[in-house]
Design a protein that fits this description.
This protein has about 375 residues and is of the alpha/beta class. The chain has helices at about 1-5, 20, 25-35, 50-60, 75-80, 90-100, 105-130, 135-140, 140-150, 155-170, 180-195, 200, 205-215, 220-225, 230-235, 240-255, 255-265, 270-280, 310-315, 350-365; strands at about 10, 35-40, 45-50, 65, 285-290, 295, 300, 305-310. Strand 2 and strand 3 (about 45-50) form a beta hairpin.
Length: about 375
Amino acid sequence: MQRAEARAPCCDIDFYSDATIAGPVPAYHRMLSLGPVVWLEQHNLHAICGFEALRDSLRNHHVFRSGAGVSISDDVNKVLIGSTLNSDPPVHDATRAITFAPLTPKALQDVKARIATEAEHIADQMVAKGRFDAAADLAPYLPLTIVRDLVGLGAHGRANMLDWGAATFELMGDPKDRRSGAVARMGQLRAFLEDPAVLDGLSPDGWARRATARGMAEGLPATRAAELMRDYIAPSLDTTISAIGYGVHLFAQNPAQWTKLRANRELMKNAIEEIVRLNTPIRAFTRKLAQDHVVADITLNKDARVLMVYGAANRDPARFAQPDAFDIERDLRGHVGFGHGVHACLGMHLARLEMACLFAALADRVVQFVPSGVPKAA
């Protein structure tokens, strides 16, 4: 009934199948070929995939709400509701102001030299090896060496941070066979956040302790303040690791672009944005409609859950000419690789800094990346 009223074109792709996750670009183009809004019959919900339609919808947080959770699963959302990502203004704005404090461009200047030094160290290691796995050997180094220490979750939290982040993202969709493992890891995270002893084990000057202390100073109960630590777990690791690995892959497949970057470092900022556009580490989140709303002439009903497909919007030929081409000089204004609107990625400035330092260090040492095999999905 809902689909018939809205008359959105049907799309039969399984957005969360292993094949789509491993290679989502054909799915993006299939959706876009049908229209800016499609009905995903396998998931029983609408998806907004066109660039303009998605950007405008993300700006309209009064209608497209995050407070009911951003996973497609209501059971999962019960666990996630309350984090900054899974909340709406004014609650969202208050908690984001706390956890975003060390992630502003100004605040990150204090750690820039440390990140640059570690970037040069790992670049030297990779060059010395000659042959390396960009996804396994290179991409995780800065997030796992620097960011885990900066967050400061203590020994247990530090050891499990990457697994908890991966579980968080798996449960945003429909992991099917992977669900039980992801749910178990999220249970471990929940137990960690609810353990009163955890606060005593946080690094004294880490971001997690600062956030919980400020939260309690502003009147949040200790348990609620501890939940602010979730804001640092998922966004600070998986997304940056994904973008770095994909960036090396893009430069290996497009050596002329690497030559351009090496010759003109002023292209670095734009190159990073182009990597993120094509990679779009977060493929999609959902929103829940606060009222009936029309997007691109398609009626979306109040209380319906809608999939916001960032990855497809970033490949929309109506916005980006030759959208699958890697061009570090293209106009990238408005890309949604870091999200858009009030829920734009909390850690985007940190991700940009890590990538800029790492690719600068590599550009000083590497003339060309030569692929030595076909990338494999994890």
